[in-house]
Amino acid sequence: MYKQFNITFYLIAALIFFPLAVNAQLDDVLKDLGNIQLPGKPPGKATPNSQASPGAVQGAAAKNTGGLMPSDQWCKQQAGSIAGMKIDTNIISSEFKIPDLEGLQDVFLKALNKGKINKTFPSAKFFQASFETKKVRAIYDTFLAFPEPDTLAALIQISRSSDEQERGDALMALVFLHLQTPEASISPTRWRELHQAALKKEHYTAIEFRARINAYGEFGPKNLRQALGDLVSAGGLQSKYNQSRGIKKEFDTQNYGVIHTATAKDIYFNEPDMPSRQQWEGSAQMGLQIEAAQKSFAEKLPSTRVGKLYAEAAKYNEESISIGNDIIKATQGGNQLEGQLQSIKSLKASSQGEKPVFEDVSPEVQAAQIKMLAKVGTLDDTQKKMLATAQEKRLVAQNIITQSYGELIQLMTANAGGDFVQMTASLPALTAANNNLIQSCIITAKWDQAMRSKDIPKPDAKKVESATTDLNSKYKE
After folding, report:
1. What does residue 434 show for φ and ψ, rounded to 5 degrees?
2. CA–CA separation, 445 and 403 (whole Å)
3. Which portions of the chain are predicted below pLDDT 70?
4. Which of 64, 133, 143, 428 could form a disulfide with 151 if both were Cys (CB 3.0 to 4.6 A apart)?
């Protein structure tokens, strides 16, 4: 079983803003990079000194030899985040005003399309991969990708658990969800109550968010000195946890340090009265270099193998949606679905601005289709075959996204130990790919369940594997 493809980049914050802490953390990061096993590639060590040409994705396996296994295995690991928990969705009413839990998904999918809410809290998605524990990070990512009652209830239950670290993480996850959906919150001040509860114990995410509150003065008095003090305190927690003489505390190796880096750099370039300004100058300049490298990577990506593979995945997902539309529009309620889909597409287009390189797999559209299919009666043989074909296309897209994700990681390992700026260039693309994989895992599982209820057989695994292999071969560098 290979490791889930996410990768640690808390090192980014350490390198940029705490250069004295680099050596110890770099060793840990390179060990993590070296232990990653990708689809179609046996376990082995990373080659930190190997070089990759600008914009290229090199070193990836040309063929997905595992058929459905790579994406299936990834999905199983992601879904395991709430395995074994006894979920009580009644607990949701203690945090959010959602009378009908069947409508919870619609409430949050609409809210999660909102971005750039304010400087302190740009959006809930901005705070992904900023927790101390792997468990809460995985549940939070899953909820943002495809919000469902069980996942939200799990976060609420963990926020009241006896595990100190997981409780702090879950409290902060709820802070972000309350700020993202204030109209559904049980109280306008509920997010602040939860934040204060998280601050009762030393906690990375809570301190980082307090730094942003102090930095921008939108949720309280502005205090730059306190903001910088909070950043220093939070930045030293990982080392402190590792050096503890008692029970060592967890620090998620997939914590990218995004909020830490963004806050410190923003203060430097926008606050001329920043305390100890000179000490932060070199670090802030490196932050600019990383931003430029990430922008350049994003511009070149569509012309690379990974970009072309992603375009194919998007095409397959769109084709699967079109097949579902054709079936449902011919049934009772089809006109209603068409209106819903047009409204969703219009909303997403206005919220996204420029078209992203890595498009999501349309969770709103897929959810609307699944709900409508549940209302449809018996399907004829032709319709059943069409739905099976649609699921085959989703699985091909899922395999391609998995393969592309692995190749992005290989590009990072090629620069590990060398050009740090180039090593971080593909991080935004990797984060987007991670979100897409979570969405794909959940959506294919939902469609499997919907198809079983209609006595539709599973897709042909050999056809899915063959299509995946053909696409891998089509776009060799």
Report:
1. -60, -45
2. 19
3. 1-71, 77-80, 244-247, 332-361, 416-418, 477
4. 143
